[in-house]
Design a protein that fits this description.
Layout (H helix, E strand, L loop, with lengths): L7 E5 L6 E2 L4 H11 L3 E6 L2 E2 L1 H9 L4 E6 L12 H15 L3 E5 L2 H14 L2 E6 L1 E4 L11 E7 L4 E7 L4 E5 L16 E6 L29 E5 L8 H10 L2 E4 L1 H5 L18 E5 L5 H4 L7 E6 L5 H5 L2 E4 L2 H19 L1
Helix pairs in contact: 3-4, 5-9
Bound molecules: flavin-adenine dinucleotide (FAD).
């Protein structure tokens, strides 16, 4: 029986380069969440810059385990599941970590699953809440209790990971990232890792350009989406997104029309932002499946009978070409007044 005093939580700081130059908001959220569970260390493949170390310290991170992968390993293989899983499993074993938290990206989920299999750990993907079932230090191997939204956000399931360590991928926007009350001095520790020679070679990887300053759709805290009601003019959608610092998404029909490039829904991207604004979108079940887990849903539609109106926390009935620019102007005014 493991006597738990102060649990060790390892957070995966994903960075596909030899130098870690930024800490993504999703990772800061995991560190914030990790602090509620125990002492937080991070594991990464690259060398963190001084600025990154300062950020990690501000968030209360103690140690940064920097994987010492063979120098012969090309940077392009830093994204390969086999490499990431070896790093994660080694970091957990060497530090006797109780919990491994990984951002819920496609790569993160795959690597977490392989690492969990190698560790013989319990695995939960896409968790939206985490807490110990008992008091830390009570001397019992209290399991971790995890909430997870399923069936397009219509149900929340609760499960426990009874095996130690727990490997968990956590959805973006589960918590608000907040610096620690007491900052630490994050120290880098080398982590020797044996990595099998990858069986695949990454030949080319092309990053799609995102509008400058726009967050990634899957992890954005605010999403503004446009549908057929835009009639092909995504200008007001883009403008509102810029005013809010939001990501832009669309319905499949809008994408098939060639008006935008990424759609939300059962066969598209799943989003669970703190705020979703759907403009000119009817709320078809296929679309709903990808956004229903959003914390607050706002719709703008000129038809009060549109299904999305019923699904919304707030619905504005009107022409999006009138409503969105007014909303964007009001938000900019409000921000300017607070600046
Ligand atoms: C197998 C399959 C998989 C699918 N997967 C997906 C998926 O993953 N994601 C997805 O989105 N769809 C998906 N679809 C398509 C889906 O079923 C719907 O057809 C689609 O979501 C509808 O898109 P929409 O809301 O933009 O268009 P519509 O249903 O045509 O709705 C347009 C809305 O805009 C409103 N409107 C019109 N003019 C204005 C205006 N000026 N101002 C304000 N409102 C206005 C209308 O009242 C209407 O409610 C899938 C379909 C199939 C068959």
């Amino acid at each position: 029986m493991t006597i738990r005093t102060r649990p060790t939580v390892l957070v995966f700081l994903d960075s596909p380069q030899r130098t870690v130059e930024t800490v993504r908001p999703a990772v800061l959220e995991l560190i914030t969440l990790g602090r509620t569970l125990g002492r937080v260390d991070v594991v990464t493949l690259g060398a963190p810059t001084v600025e990154v170390l300062a950020t990690l310290g501000a968030y209360g991170v103690h140690l940064v385990h920097q994987a010492q992968v063979p120098t012969s390993l090309p940077e392009s293989s830093y994204r390969l599941t086999s490499v990431l899983a070896s790093v994660l499993a080694t970091a957990v074993r060497r530090n006797d970590a109780d919990v491994l938290l990984v951002p819920s990206s496609f790569a993160g989920k795959e690597a977490a699953a392989v690492a969990a299999a190698r560790l013989g750990s319990g695995l939960v993907v896409d968790a939206s809440s985490l807490a110990w079932t008992g008091e830390p230090g009570a001397g019992d191997p209290a399991p971790l209790r995890l909430g997870k939204r399923v069936f397009a956000g219509t149900w929340t399931t609760v499960s426990t990971v009874a095996s130690d360590p727990a490997v968990v991928t956590v959805r973006a926007n589960t918590v608000v990232a907040e610096p620690a009350a007491v900052a630490t001095e994050a120290v880098v520790e080398p982590l020797p890792v044996e990595v099998e020679a990858p069986r695949v070679t990454v030949v080319e990887r092309t990053l799609k350009e995102r509008a400058a300053g726009r967050p990634q759709l899957e992890e954005a805290a605010i999403v503004v989406a446009g549908g057929r009601g835009t009639n092909g003019d995504f200008g007001p959608v883009d403008d509102l997104a810029d005013a809010l610092g939001a990501a832009v998404g669309a319905t499949r029909d809008a994408v098939f029309e060639g008006w935008f490039d990424r759609y939300i829904g059962q066969t598209g991207v799943t989003v669970a932002p703190r705020l979703y604004i759907g403009a000119g979108i009817s709320g078809a079940p296929h679309h709903r499946g990808g956004m229903q887990a959003s914390q607050v849903i706002v719709s703008v539609n000129n038809d009060p009978e549109a299904p999305i109106v019923e699904q919304s926390d707030f619905a504005v009935v009107g022409d999006l070409a009138d409503v969105l620019p007014q909303a964007a102007a009001a938000i900019r005014e409000h921000k300017a007044a607070r600046a």
